[in-house]
Design goal:
The chain is an all-alpha fold. The chain has one domain. The protein contains 4 helices and no strands.
């Protein structure tokens, strides 16, 4: 519930970080899960931290999109989607590997 509240609060300030502020809760949750995953030596312990790096890059590209459009006409928004696809793959892989370990 708190996650949703903070995500919605971030939408109240669309000019900050080009609207990417609403992704701050996801960034914080992924940071916490990545640290937990690493500290507790889960399967592929760097996988969620790698996912965090991919998400960070995706957020930077999303944030810079409008600013770069005059110089790079197709923008960087398509890269946001590509890197989010990689992020979903990393998260799914971490889930599958660690569910198998628990059974």
């Amino acid at each position: 519930m708190l996650y949703i509240v903070f995500a919605l609060l971030g939408r109240q300030y669309p000019n900050i970080l080009n609207g990417s502020l609403s992704y701050a809760p996801a960034f914080l949750v992924l940071s916490g899960l990545g640290l937990y995953h690493f500290i507790h030596k889960k399967q592929q312990k760097f996988l969620l931290l790698s996912a965090l790096a991919v998400f960070s890059l995706a957020l930077v590209l999303r944030t810079l999109d409008n600013m770069l459009c005059p110089y790079f006409p197709i923008g960087t928004h398509f890269l946001w989607h590509i890197f989010n696809g990689i992020l979903v793959y990393f998260l799914s892989l971490a889930l599958m590997l660690n569910l198998e370990q628990e059974q």
